[in-house]
Design a protein that fits this description.
This protein has about 260 residues and is mostly beta strands. It is built from no helices and 22 strands. The chain starts with 17 loop residues before the first strand and ends with a strand. This is RSE1/DDB1/CPSF1 first beta-propeller domain-containing protein.
């Protein structure tokens, strides 16, 4: 009898952490991609429902570079060349140490990040930086905003034509850009996940810590943001990820309960 033992789980992981929707397997096919711990599942969105297609191991909006915040005070940049191949990575020092979230902004001529951070007095702010690939350093960005909701913890970059960023707090939601600042009070909650509904970024689904699902609407006149509205939709499993599928169907992935198509 061998003294060595080999241990393996009998079931594949079911804990859903991330999801997204897009045309992956074909330009004519709409797919739901689900991350479950050590695996990625690819499903086809069909009239009959979700059809599993692939189950594989896990291996700036304009695809100019990859940005990684791996350590406090350090931002790693991995650029792409014109053929989509990875170039040599480099590090940039990041002044903000208590970083809560980092996202790339849409609609910028140069790769630009927005940083949500907390200072030594526990106040929360956002700041933008352009990534200079030539100088391998940050350049002060086009705008910033100080003294946000003390519970602000999540950034949602808004795509063109509106651009800018949504800042999700525990008591307020803010839209901020170089030209606009709009805020709306909300019922105290901790938003755990979001999913974009429309390609223009005017509507978002928000899932909170209690399993409540809300619809956030950015009201606008052409490219000018005029305000924010929020509407309660119902109750789901506590969401880890939300992806709008099509025809008013939504995938709610959960680490705390059953994932749902809603």
């Amino acid at each position: 009898m061998s003294i060595w033992n080999y241990v393996v789980t009998a079931h594949k992981p079911t804990n859903v952490t991330h999801s997204c929707v897009g045309n992956f397997t074909s330009p004519q096919e709409l797919n739901l991609i689900i991350a479950k711990c050590t695996r990625i599942e690819i499903h086809l969105i069909a009239p009959q429902g979700l059809q599993p297609m692939l189950d594989i191991g896990i291996i700036d909006p304009d695809c100019r570079l990859i940005g990684l915040h791996l350590y406090d005070g350090l931002f790693k940049v991995i650029p792409f060349d014109n053929k989509g191949q990875l170039k040599e990575a480099f590090n940039i020092r990041l002044e903000e140490l208590q970083v809560l979230d980092i996202k790339f902004l849409y609609g910028c001529s140069k790769p630009t990040i927005v940083v949500l951070y907390q200072d030594n007095k526990d106040a929360r702010h956002i700041k933008t930086y352009e990534v200079s690939l030539k100088d391998k350093d940050f350049v002060e960005g086009p705008w910033s905003q100080n003294n946000l909701d003390n519970g602000a913890s999540l950034l949602i970059p808004v795509p063109p034509p509106l651009c800018g960023v949504l800042i999700i707090g525990e008591e307020t939601i803010v839209y901020c850009s170089a030209n606009a600042f709009k805020a709306i009070p909300i019922r105290p909650s901790i938003t755990k996940a979001y999913g974009r509904v429309d390609a223009d970024g005017s509507r978002y689904l928000l899932g909170d810590h209690a399993g409540f699902l809300h619809l956030l609407v950015i009201t606008h006149e052409r490219e000018k943001v005029t305000g924010l509205k929020i509407e309660f939709l119902g109750e789901t499993s506590i969401a880890s990820t939300i992806s709008y599928l099509d025809n008013a169907f939504v995938f709610v992935g959960s680490s705390y309960g059953d994932s749902q198509v809603w």
